[in-house]
Structures are given as C-alpha cells and as structure tokens.
Design brief:
The protein has 233 residues and is mostly beta strands. The strands form two sheets. A twelve-stranded mixed beta sheet has the order 1-7-6-5-4-3-2-12-11-10-9-8, sandwiched between helices. It has a two-stranded antiparallel sheet with strand order 13-14. The two termini are 37 Å apart.
Length: 233
C-alpha cells in the first residue's frame, strides 16, 4: 500500500496541469511551488516515503495531499483564519479532481500543546546549517527533541520546518535571525530526533515551480467536534 501511495505522489505533479472543479467558488488559493519530501524513518523502523505538498508563497499556505483509509485527501490549513479545508482528491488518467468536503474551525480551540513550554536553543553549525534543541525545562538537562536544519540559497524564501511542535514559528524566526536579510533561503534537508519517544527521521526537500489555483465554495460546510453546520464565507 505504501508503494501505491508513493507511486501516486510521484505522478501527482503532472496531473495538476488540468484541474476540474464542480461547484460555485469564492476564496481562491494560488500555488506557485511544489514541495516533494523524501523521508527516511530511521527509528523505530527503517521506512521510506514520498509526499507532495503545494505552496502559496504569497500567503505562506500549504496544500498537503495524503492518503487516509485508502482515500486521498487534500488539506489546506489557513493559520490566519484558523480554518482547515478538506478536499477529496480523485485522480484519473489525465487530470485530478478536487471535491470540497468540509472545513474545520479551530478559532475557538482552547487546547494547549504541552510542548509549548519547551526551552529552545539554536546553534549555528555553519552559514547554511543550524541545530535546534528543545529542552523540557530551563535547566536544559533533558532534551525533548533536536533538529539539524540544512539550508540552501533560493529564488524565494522557504524556511518552513514542517515539525510537529507548538513552537515551530518561533524556531523559524530564530533561524532566520542568523541569516543574511538580503538573501533568500530554502530548507534543503531535515534530520529530526524525538528523544522522548525514540522516533527519528531524515527528510530531503525538492522544490519546483507550478502554477495552479484551488478555490473554496461560497458556502462552507463547517465541521467542528463532530457537528456539521453551514456557514457562508
């Protein structure tokens, strides 16, 4: 099944040359870059996977395409609006159809990530490599995670770390403080170790130009805590 998923991801980009939408639209996201991530899970088991995301560099928003229970879904998480839009992705021989499903509203979510209390430490290894360490407390005696970030000069700025942590924005801001403000940088490679769980992986990114848009229906279906209600955009 993983091989089928990886094969689909590799074929995904050319299929986006033609997109079909079947409803009345309102807000539009325009994607100008594709981000292909080749990830090797090191611990607990060695596994390889390929994932594709698309990036709106103007609004700094991702469209992630992944497989859930034998069904591909496209997910846009708009942090500015605290909304997550979910689409069914239907591939065929010559094109991909995006069928809008629902939207999750997180604007009233009071959940706090316990990892938000981690103490961050950023170390400059060289001009294009940085280490981020998250400690459990101010004494810095126990590491929760560590990340080795490798950058490259780029035509546009892409310092999205893609780490599942409540302080990811702070990490990106701290790394950026080391960099030449007159140059653009993109993440080339990540090596992540979660010391608390023993999980680790290595991920390399390949960035290419694309040009397509994905639109939302005028009337969103808001799904929150198992309830579905309708709400105009």
């Amino acid at each position: 099944m993983e091989e089928d998923k990886n094969a689909f991801m590799k074929k995904l980009l050319p299929l986006f040359l033609t997109l079909i939408f079947t409803t009345i639209f309102s807000q539009e996201y325009h994607f100008d870059y594709s981000i292909e991530s080749q990830t090797t899970q090191i611990k607990p088991d060695k596994e390889k996977s390929v994932s594709t995301a698309f990036y709106d560099s103007t609004n700094k928003i991702h469209l992630n395409v992944d497989r859930f229970n034998d069904q591909f879904k496209g997910i846009i998480y708009d942090k500015n609006e605290n909304l997550r839009h979910v689409f069914k992705v239907i591939p065929s021989k010559d094109f991909v159809t995006f069928e809008y499903m629902y939207t999750n509203d997180f604007s009233k979510d009071k959940h706090k990530d316990i990892a938000n209390g981690d103490i961050l430490e950023i170390k400059k290894m060289d001009s294009l490599q940085y280490q981020i360490i998250g400690y459990k407390n101010e004494k810095k005696t126990k590491k929760r995670f560590s990340v080795l970030v490798s950058l490259e000069k780029s035509t546009f700025d892409y310092l999205e770390l893609g780490i599942d942590h409540g302080k990811t924005d702070e990490m990106q801001k701290n790394v950026r403080a080391f960099l030449d403000p007159n140059s653009n940088y993109a993440v080339k490679r990540l090596h992540v170790d979660y010391h608390s769980t023993g999980y680790s992986y290595d991920s390399s990114l390949k960035i290419t130009n694309v040009d397509f848009s994905l639109k939302l229906p005028k009337e969103l279906v808001i799904k929150e805590y198992g309830l579905i209600v309708k709400n105009s955009w």
